[in-house]
Every structure is written in structure tokens, then in C-alpha cells.
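Exercise: predict the structure of this protein bound to 3,4-dihydroxyphenylalanine.
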Amino acid sequence: MKDALEKIQRLVDEKISEVRQQKEIEDIRIKFLGKKGELTAILKQMGKLSAEERPVIGQLANKVRSHIEEAIASKAEEIKNAEKERKLKEETIDVTLPGKAPKVGKAHPLNFVLREVEEVFLGMGFDIVEGPEVETDHYCFEALNMPPHHPARDTQDTFYINDNVLLRTQTSSVQIRIMENRKPPIRIISPGRVYRSDAVDATHSPLFHQIEGLVIDKGVTMADLKGTLELLMQRLYGKDCKIRLRPHHFPYTEPSAEVDIMCFNCGGKGCPMCKNEGYIELLGSGMVHPKVLEGCGIDPEVYSGFAFGMGLERITMGRYNINDMRLLYENDVRFLEQF
Ligand code: DAH
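Solution:
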């Protein structure tokens, strides 16, 4: 019996040393220590032993049992640690690896230039205001000194909702809305969409954007208009940029002027870009017509003011040397990525 016990111990040691998985340990425990296990089977025969032999063998049997239990426990611990070690290795994060750069979007060139313009005017104390795109005839034409059969309406054919309601052709409508609701001094710009019944080509689109400007105060002159626009253009096109005011006609300003910028391509000498003019037309402007002021309840004997309206597309195209307006609306990322 002593031999049998020692043999079991050897066998267990041998088997345990070969174990690789937790489950195998359990099999060993059942095989030797379980109810029908080998050690248990031997212990069941203890009754057959003589009184002298019994304590000796009993002691040995207990020793073998605790040996097996310890061996099982320490192997189980070993496997658990090895498993933990393996998991840690597997889940290691290498913080020194370069990260995946997220794709960062950026502002559309039209928005980018708009923000620049807004910043210049905010710096000069202007408010940025908005007006409706669906507008009444009154704000879009009538109050701007363009009565129903005024020829200036011909160049601004638009989309009518009904005889009186239309998609605005110009942001000048916002001038009236502001003058009707605010007391001078007024200093605003108003960017937004405008609509005209034009076919799409390199320089036309039925939807485009304007930025309107309006200043009303005591003693405002044409010099303020010129200084304001010169500052804007120098901020957009560089310190050396020159502008010129050319007489023009708008029904809502008197006098009126178109503002040109010296061609950045040829510096005023004349080239295909400026159609040999040396200058490129950028916007319309003038001193607000007394009739318009009066119509809004502002006394033209006390107050004067200037206004201007520019096409955002045109200044953006000039800024980035873009020669086809359609590129700004097609949303081709290959094009937009360049700015
Ligand atoms: N509304 C004009 C246009 O769409 C631009 C313009 C001209 C705006 C003169 C003004 C102005 O405020 O005073 O062509």
C-alpha cells in the first residue's frame, strides 16, 4: 500500500508537469482526489490494515493528499499568471506609434473670404445683420427708388412668388429694413444670398452672394466711403492694392460710383485678365439718395450716409485667381482642397 501511495504521488507529479491548461488540472484532481479517484480507492482499503500499519499508512496517505493538493494549487496559480501575462502582452498599446490623423475639413473659399470681410468691418465697429431672401417688391425695389417701370429693374429680373413677393436680387433691401428700424448712427454690413434669372456661365449664376454695407451719421462724406473700401481691399488684396472710383448710376445713391481694383495680374498696365483695362470692377457704391433716407424717416438735411454692395463670388475669385464661378458651387473636393 505504501508503494501504491508513493506511485500515485510520482504519477501526479509527472502529470502535473505536463499540464498546459486549466482544464487538465481539474481532470487530474478528479482522477486522483475525486470520489472515485485513485487515492480515494486506496484509502477505502485502510480497513484491511493491521492496527500497527494503519497510523503509518494513514499519515503517509495524508501527506500524499496534501502534496497533490499543493501541486494542483500551485500549477493552477502558474497557469493563471501565464494567462494574465499573455493577455497583457497581447493588449499592449504602443503609445509611441504615430496616430491616425483625422480628416479635418475647412471653410469653403466663399465662407473664408466672407469671414475675412466680416472681421475687417467688425474691427471698424460695424454690426453684421441679416435680411430675408424672400422679399417684397417694396424692400427690393420700390423703397430703393426703383418704382415699377424703372429701367434699372430690367437688369435684375428674378423669380417671383407672386406680383409682390420675390426672391431678392440684391442685399440692398436690407438697407431699407435697417433704416426703418434703427436710428442713426447706423453702421452695418449684411451678407447673404441673392437671386437673378440668369443662365449659368463662368461669371453668372442664378444664385450668388452679396455683401451690403451701410453707414448713416452726421457729416458722412464720399471720403469716408473711399477710405472704408480702400482699407477693406488692402486687407484682402495686400497693402499695395489701389482702388479707383468711377462715376456710375444707381437709383438709390447720389452720387454713385463703381469701385475698381488695380489689376493684381498686371499692376495696372493692362492684360487679358483685366481685359486691357488695368482695373477690375469690384462693386457698386454711393452716397445714399435723399429720397431713400426720407422714405425711411431719416432727415437728409441732418444725416448723410454711404452704401455699397459687392459680389462675394467676384472678390473671392479675384483673391484666389479663380476664372470660373461654377467651380465655387460644384463642391469638387480636389478643387476646394487647394485653398
Ligand atoms: N445693389 C447693387 C447691385 O446689386 C450694388 C450696389 C450699388 C449696392 C450701390 C449699394 C450701392 O448699396 O450703394 O448691383
